[in-house]
Amino acid sequence: METIAESASSAPGDPSKGTRSGAKGHAPFFGPLPTRGIWTAVGLTRGQFFFILTVSVAMFVFLYGPLWLHARDSHLARIVWSYLVIVPMVWAALYRSGKARVVTVVAASVVVGLVKLVLTAVILVAIGLLQA
61-70 pLDDT, tens per residue? Predict the structure, then answer.
């Protein structure tokens, strides 16, 4: 059992005392980014998944002019091109990893497309609310 004097003399975050907080004496606010997630189930790495998602969302937001300047216009061309780019990018990423199979490419494209759908819907709603 530790006495009060021993407790006061030990440094905060002392690994010998069983704390997980490290040298600063407090727990980190953010942990490391996950290495496994929805992307691993379809054969993509975290970097590949987020790169494809970022390119696709950026195309939706910036193709034919910034989205916030054209929020009330038709988005058909933006939607079509931003989804069409997903399939070849997924194929290239999976081909590079040696995992390019038709089923894997389709599954990974659907997963990226669904996440993109949610992100672009949130972006459009936010722009619409801010411009109201």
Answer: 999 889 989 8
Whole-structure pTM value: 0.71
Q: How far apart are CA 111 and CA 104, in angstroms?
A: 11
Hey, what are 107's tokens? 């599954």
- For the chain, give the secondary structure using H, E and C: CCCHHHHHHCCCCCHHHCCCCCCCCCCCCCCCCCCCCHHHHCCCCHHHHHHHHHHHHHHHHHCCCCHHHCCCCCCHHHHHHHHHCHHHHHHHHHHHHCCCCHHHHHHHHHHHHHHHHHHHHHHHHHHHHHHC
Nearest alpha-carbon partner for 45 in 101, 108, 88, 87: 108
Interval 3-55: pLDDT, tens:
555 555 555 555 555 445 455 566 666 666 667 767 777 889 989 999 999 99
Instruction: Measure the CA dihedral 50/56/61/65, to 10°.
Output: 140
Tell me how far apart the alpha carbons of residues 80 and 84 are, in angstroms, rounded to a whole number.
Answer: 6
